[in-house]
Design a protein that fits this description.
The protein is mainly α and 687 residues long. The protein contains 39 helices and no strands. It is globular and about 100 Å long.
Length: 687
């Protein structure tokens, strides 16, 4: 998060922050050069039209493209940007295939921070251009950065570099993307190129210092920061990066000093105050932290994140004082149960679960109360101590209490312990007692999941459908989709997962399960597309693994994709045994035997009890006529599965290949004996 904050200024174009206040709208237009203004024909046409027009109203009434364009440029020169934006709507309607209209309108959307609309217009302009310019890709890439779509931004800046290999800004911004994506080595390469093209690019030195620091090159990182500082002693970003590096090293006092210098250099940037406030909070200086956030809020009243953070900090400051008062009250009367209960509640709200648990136990020692049992059980549930939590909920309910919240949380505990029959009973009780539709819908959803776990699919479908009727949330459609999937009704499952995604665009589990439905329906391309959608925003090793498995089912033409996805999964999760197995099999398919054996050996190290890894590796050894190593693997398999006749007979066959008649005879006898015993046992069972 600190890295994301550190270069938020880099992702903005020259138009950023122009919509903050009305005064900005009158000074910014001079900085904007619209694509139409480069065309001499437009200029001459504009002059002619203005000479022949009596008033702006004549232009407004005209349906001529160039009349409208003249008026747009006139509004632009006056700084009346909203009016200009409205007229661009008409320009695009008059000439829907005019790329420059979309590009210019995109710039206006960008100025007003309407990122989605700007992105749409730039994309349209690119699609209409036979050879889109580097500046157009730069504009779209910058908007992608604003939307935190870093991979897409990186693609656009790469396109700019392909068009113009000496574009300093493109290397710099692609380096920014790489750093935010935590691809620090790639970031350093891009920033090296930036500095090669522009040796006085202070921001590139600053950004490279952070990337080097992340790679562990501390001295070199500080050297880069020092170079940037010499180039521009008043550049706040140099102070900012130095503060961040000291903060990461745990040198909080030094970090605080440099945050102060950054603010001194640029006292009107809200995020500097936010960063210092977060450090002050870490140093337990809550009052000063609140003051910094109040200043940040004063500088940017429209920033909802700052407002929310300020509210949280003020609450925490109040709670800090409350903790002192509550502790003082306990000191005055340590036998008073309510003091412990109140402080326990405070600790619970503050996230101090162990302290809250201790205080609730002390309160219970003086007074047994349903509320205290419930709150103590709730903490134990949050700590995943489900058995202990159930005991406390039992005590809370023992007096005949009818609080549905207790049954609901106890039901969740039973579900986590796979005691689904008990969970069904508790969720049924919630449905009886609760009158609020939202919570009742949640109870139907939870009971539906419990029914699904015990394979009562009819009841599960009914409950999920009722949850949707009461509260049509993404999770409820997702739950019903899972039930359909268990019933192998993949078309219905796909429809529910699609509905969940339409409600919650980032519901990655719905994408994952919809992909599985597509695979079951033999629509592998759609399934891969869903998994790819997840990976664009969330690099998850299991998703790379799942997509790799899907590619593996598409035949030899997709082997490279299998290897690529499994490699990425291994990078993100080095202990993912299945990824080594799949990559090893892929390597073996294309004749890379050494790599295949190495991967299967890694899989065995990750999961030494998994028999399939030994089976695959032994088969590769046999194909290579390396019978001794194959025997070692089969011996391990026999150790894991000593009643397998097949394994003894297989090892006997290999001993025979090696001419070891004694071991051949011994294994053959054992294998035959096991086989005979199993045959006799099956005959007795048949009788």
């Amino acid at each position: 998060m600190m890295l994301m904050r550190s270069i938020s200024f880099l992702s903005s174009s020259s138009l950023k922050n122009t919509a903050k206040s009305p005064s900005n709208l009158h000074c910014t237009p001079k900085k904007i050069k619209f694509s139409h203004q480069n065309d001499r024909f437009f200029h001459s046409n504009r002059k002619l039209n203005l000479e022949n027009s009596n008033s702006t109203k004549n232009l407004e009434r005209s349906n001529n493209f160039f009349d409208k364009l003249d008026l747009v440029l006139e509004y632009h020169e006056k700084g009346e940007m909203k009016e200009a934006a409205n007229l661009y709507e008409e320009l695009c309607e008059i000439k829907p295939n005019d790329a420059t209209s979309y590009e210019s309108r995109g710039m206006l959307h960008e100025m007003f921070r309407h990122w989605r609309s700007a992105l749409s217009d730039y994309t349209k302009a690119i699609s209409l251009s036979s050879s889109p310019s580097a500046s157009l890709y730069t504009k779209r890439g910058t908007v992608f950065m604003e939307k935190k779509e870093l991979k897409n931004a990186k693609k656009d800046f790469t396109k700019v570099i392909e068009i113009n290999p000496n574009d300093v800004d493109a290397y710099f911004k692609r380096g920014s993307c790489n750093m935010l994506l935590e691809r620090y080595e790639d970031a350093v390469k891009d920033l090296d190129k930036t500095i090669e093209l522009d040796p006085k690019h202070a921001s590139a030195f600053n950004l490279r210092s952070l990337s080097k620091y992340a790679l562990g090159s501390t001295d070199s990182a500080f050297d880069d920061n020092a170079v940037a500082f010499k180039m521009d002693p008043d550049q706040f970003i140099s102070y900012k990066y130095r503060a961040q590096m000291h903060e990461k090293k745990g040198e909080l006092k030094e970090a605080l000093r440099f945050w102060g210098e950054a603010i001194r250099s640029e006292p009107t940037i809200p995020n500097l105050y936010v960063s210092r406030a977060q450090l002050l909070k870490q140093m337990d200086n809550h009052e000063e932290a609140v003051k910094d956030l109040e200043k940040a809020h004063e500088l940017d009243l429209e920033d909802g994140k700052i407002s929310r953070l300020l509210k949280i900090f003020r609450t925490e400051l109040k709670l800090t004082k409350t903790e002192e008062e509550l502790t003082k009250g306990i000191g005055e009367d340590s036998s008073y149960w309510e003091a412990y209960y109140n402080r326990g509640t405070f600790y619970h709200r503050s996230g101090k679960k162990k302290e809250a648990l201790a205080d609730y136990e002390k309160a219970l020692a003086s007074k047994a109360s349903k509320d205290i049992w419930f709150k103590k059980g709730l903490i134990l549930y949050e700590m995943e101590r489900y058995e202990d939590a159930i005991k406390d909920f039992d005590d809370a309910i023992s007096g005949g209490d009818k609080d549905w919240k207790i049954y609901s949380t106890r039901g969740k505990c039973f579900g986590a312990l796979n005691k689904n029959e008990e969970a069904v009973k508790d969720f049924t009780k919630v449905i009886e007692l609760c009158s609020e539709e939202r919570y009742k819908a949640e109870a139907y959803h939870d009971r539906g999941n419990a029914y699904k776990s015990i394979e009562k699919y009819k009841e599960a479908l009914e409950d999920m459908s009722e949850a949707i009727r009461l509260s049509p949330e993404a999770d409820h459609y997702f739950g019903r989709g899972n039930v359909y999937s268990s019933l192998h009704k993949y078309e219905e499952a796909e429809a529910d997962f699609t509905k969940a995604i339409s409600i919650e665009a980032n519901h990655w589990n719905a994408y994952r399960m919809r992909a599985l439905s597509y695979f079951r329906m033999k629509q592998k391309e759609k399934g891969i597309q869903d998994l790819t959608s997840i990976l664009e925003s969330n690099e998850n090793p299991q998703i790379y693994y799942s997509r790799g498995v899907a590619y593996a089912g598409m035949g030899a033409s997709s082997i490279d994709n299998v290897i690529s996805d499994m490699t990425k999964a291994i990078e993100l999760a080095p202990d993912l045994a299945g990824a080594y197995q799949m990559r090893g099999v892929a390597y073996n398919t294309i004749g890379k035997v050494k790599e295949a054996i190495a991967d299967l050996t890694s899989a065995i190290k990750c999961a030494p009890q998994e028999r399939v890894f030994y089976e695959i590796r032994s088969n590769i050894y046999i194909a290579q006529n390396d019978f001794k190593l194959a025997i070692d693997d089969i011996s391990k398999l026999i150790e894991l599965h000593p009643t397998s006749a097949k394994l003894y007979l297989q090892r006997a066959h290999l001993y025979d290949k090696l001419g070891d008649t004694g071991r051949f005879a011994e294994d053959y006898r054992k294998g035959s004996l096991i086989k005979t015993k199993k045959k006799l046992l099956r005959g007795q069972q048949a009788k």
